[in-house]
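User: Can you fold this complex?
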Amino acid sequence: MRRKPIVIPSDSAAVTAAVVMRLYVVGGAPNSVQALANLEAICQRQLKGSYQLEVVDVLEQPLRALADGVIVTPSLIKLSPLPAAQIVGNLSDKSKVQRALGLEEKIW
Amino acid sequence: MKTASSDSRTETDFSETEAAFATFIRRLIQDAATLRAIDSGEVDAILDPVSGRAILLPEAREALRQSEVPTNQVLATLPREEYQRLRAGLELVTLTFGDVLHEPGELIQHIYFPNEGLLVSLLTLVQDRMGLEIGLVGSEGMVGLPVAQGIDTSSVRAVVQGTGTALRMESSQFRQALETSPALQRTLHRYTYALIAQITQTAACSRFHQVEARLARWLLMASDRLQSNSIHFTQEWLADLLGVRRVGVTLAASALQQQRLIQYSRGNITILDREGLKASACECYQKIKDIFDRA
Ligand SMILES: [Zn+2]
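Assistant: Here's the predicted assembly.
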């Protein structure tokens, strides 16, 4: 389940290029759970129609993380659109995440 | 260590190990942002490029160890011995909003025991649209109940709401485990009865009750299962679950807010007055709750 990317089909309102992300986590560990929840909240509000998020558990696939240059979890990688960006930690700093994803810094 | 007690040695060893680990981390990581994240406790694990393995930090390790004690109530009611037998086949997974666990007509690969904080909606699909919610499963239950009855395909779509963990097991393995676990059989019989009652009541509710009363019911049910007064959702999502137009949910939510029963902001609802919300909810809430409490 968690290796399957969550693909949210774009609706007619949002025809912008999809943001493709990969989040490296340790399933069930507090910061990883937090990072997922924080990222989800941002994506639901600002990327409604168009994003792909793949969640990778490093206890299962450590080599993939290393190949991606990931050295700690949680780590979020924005793969597309370019430029790629990486951000570490539990993603509780909303504006930092928004900047990394190239989003408008909105305060809800 | 100034105290000369017998365990001062182990403490010294421990802090030496910690210090060595800290040095190791600093040598491994030169990036300032990453070090800051580690220092502020925002990191769960470090990947060691030499061994190619992930090393858990102490807090994450402790959290994972604790999660081995299930917060799922079906599992928690089992005698220790039965649970130990089951445990080998259970895998802890993190699930996120929108994950589809089961699809109508498809094979049920895994059954899930949600831990505290995870909610799963059971939906019937109407013309491939996002479906109407007919059941809500939290840490009191199990997702994939047909497997316990010997049926291997799902009749509903099971979708995760929010983010949380669950213990899951492969269906075939679960079926075998169930045969040798009488306590699990009994618990699941009672849960099946309660879930069927919930589904039946929900069907009547969708047909006969007003949106505001149904929204109040849903919030109470979700809050019971999450064991939290704070619920995260979007209005679109709730409108789909309740099978009404979004504006219906908006109006109902603002009516409840005006009565100071809930506070709604940024996709989060906080229940302010539980008793008041119960009074606004349709009778279905209490009926379903009574059945679950008795079962
Ligand atoms: Zn009702």
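The interface with chain B takes residues 1-2, 6, 8, 25-33, 36-37, 40-41, 44-45, 53, 55, 57-59, 62-63, 65-66, 70-74, 87-90, 92, 108 of chain A (CB under 8 Å). Residues 30-46 of chain A form the longest helix (17 residues).
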